[in-house]
User: Fold these one by one.
Assistant:
Number 1:
Amino acid sequence: MDIPSIEQESPAAIKQLQEDKLSDLLHYLKKASPYYSRLFQKYSIDIDQIKTLGDLQRIPVTTKKQLQEQNQEFICVPKNRIVDYITTSGTLGDPVTFALTDQDLERLAYNEKISFTCADSSSDDTFQLMTTIDRRFMAGLAYFLGVRKLGAGIARVGPGMPELQWDTINRIAPTAFITVPSFLLKLIEYAEENGIDYRQSSIQKAICIGETVRNPDFSLNTLGQRITEKWPITLYSTYASTEMGTAFTECSEQKGGHHHPELIIVEFLDDDDQPVPEDQPGEVTVTTLGMEGMPLLRFKTGDICYRHTEPCPCGRNTMRLGPVIGRRQQMIKLKGTTLYPPAIYDVLHDIQEVDNYVVEVSTNDIGTDDLLIRVGCSNQSQNLEKKITDHFRANLRVSPVIKLHSREEVDEFRFPGTSRKPMTFIDKRQS
């Protein structure tokens, strides 16, 4: 297995490498970043006094709002050095444009190569890419570059189209998917309806993106169980974002996504931007290393996770990131109960009749949260609405409003306008 040497070093050696790279980053930002050079001046920050990872606490965090409102001020290179433009999906607000240099694309390819290697992949694999590579979307491009750097084969099929997916499997015999995991249920459904023996296909594993297939204790959640009960392939969870340009991917032990310390510094902060104890979940806050176009310093992702620091049996000594519990901005308070969308999705995945769904949260006339779930289903039995409501009461002790629709109607909610990704959570709350 090709593990980067730094990921097998001692925690002290990993920390030293990160502190050396942090010093380089701070000097680069002071020289090249309009946003951060002003920040250092405004807060009288002497970057030569930022020597340890703990010293990062002296620097204010960067938020999504700042990225949205001052997007161009984060760019550190002249326009003639930008070779690719990426735009975030805008799930939590206005999209943000990222400018990438040739070196940034090489870094992206390296990240995905070592992430695929982490997920027990090699040049012997052939990947079926089931996410878009166009429309300014980073993920599809990153996976394509990473597979090429790995030396493996790739079939760029894109999202949806179960018939074309199965035609590709039959023609090319890929060994691995790169996919949103819930789409695997649609592939299984299509195969069963069309007499395809999917269990005997060439597919051995799936690199799962965009949705978690595990609980915080690393057991398979309902979605993961539904997939593997039907199709016993190996599922590897990943966590990434455009802003960090880095992925956390599971190894064969499947005990969290491994940190690549040569690419990113990670902090876990509370609501007051203070570090949380190791046994507590915190907001993933990242400092990108080795990026030229738009490096970020202490960027708060909004994602809440646990971290795990004990060495992994796979041979890596790096920190591991647990499944995303939820996004800070997506927390719902429903009649005294605090919820995050992943818990809602898990309940819906446990109901066989549910084909797709959209979760909508809004503010009612007394200023508290209301929860509406639009459920798409092909077969609307008379008691389905009650069944779904009862399932929520039993599992989460809440009773959201349920509205039944056809699968096609819900897809219209899930893909509004120019959206590249399905919108499973729509926040209509007053700010």
Number 2:
Amino acid sequence: MRKHRSFSIPSSLKIKDALLKWSEKYTKIAWLDSNGHSDAYSTYDAILAIAEQTDKSSRTVYCIDELSEFIDKEHDWLFGYLSYDLKNRIERLSSNNFDGLKFPEIHFFQPSKIIAIKDEALHFLYLNSHANQIEGDYSTIKVLLRENISHNVLSQAIHIKMRIHKDAYFEKANRFLEHIHRGDIYEANFCQEFYAENTTINAFETFRKLNAISKPPFASFLKSNEHYLLCASPERYLKRMGQAVISQPIKGTAPRGKTQIEDESLQYQLENDEKERAENIMITDLVRNDLSKSAVKGSVEVKELCKVYAFEQVHQMISTVVSKVPKNKKSFELIQETFPMGSMTGAPKVSAMKIIEALEETKRGLYSGAVGYFDPNGNFDFNVVIRSILYNEIEKYVSFSVGSAITAKSNPEKEYQECLLKAKAMRSVLEGS
């Protein structure tokens, strides 16, 4: 069904620039980039999937049933996203808050062309109907690789507005605390939107700038007609590798220091912060419970607990939970059993989502969802859509959201400051600061 060709390449960041530049003309693009981060669960350094809107040899999937059927029967690649509001199909929930972005609930496409970077080689995986284009496309990419690709100047600085202002944030945070003290929940992720209306951005250049200042392990750029995702996520939601399933929830954030001594001090404080560790452990326990729904008995294991990793903008506390599933376990069932990710909801999950819906001002949409791929063998890898700019080109609406976990020990002022810290990279890119 697909033609495979591989070409050796020099170890260079320029190849990624060339691939993104080459892809700009396509109507459907998925670009996933590890930014050089590598661990025991890494598969590709980066992978690009593309298709044309008019391409009859590839399919587009917009609903759960179609997605599950494709994975089980077609045995080919799918790239795309699951929005947070897929929760309404999995549980008896609803989302009626304001939505300025208007992204579909689910969107996947079967790419006509896939190019992966792995082991210092470009791997072309083209549908047979496009196999005769591999040589020509590789030649074009090599030309771009030799050129100094000029990047357009970003559009004029954008004025960002807050959907929830500080006093309202404190009032809502205290209402979350009331629910916690009453015993309705013991943790909830409270998010707020920053947005700009009647605004046009250069999505490719904005993504390049966001990625350059963040360099996260789960960066992604998604284009589907007028909808764009510019994602600098540090978090993996879920990965399947045969019978192995991996989840790496993040809970716990601290700023980077201005000096090495200050940086190390902030990292140490995060590692030993009782409240941050409690947040992480609660969500790790939720993930363990989610994975246990289909795991082989006794196979759920916490490989890392509350380990602090340094990124360009922040320190993050990450845990790694793994399990083993039966060979015949359907991939989409694993998604249904674990979605949305606990780090973006709280616990108990359903109760937290109901309260979140009542207290937040906007529909999350793709924010708090997941972007990634399914491969022909049913393996998959999805990130958590955080630290991301979302853009509807037709509506001229730009948005990014940030959140923090509210627990019994939360201080609303500190949670508010954590949100501002997480918003820093997106805001600086858009406002030109």
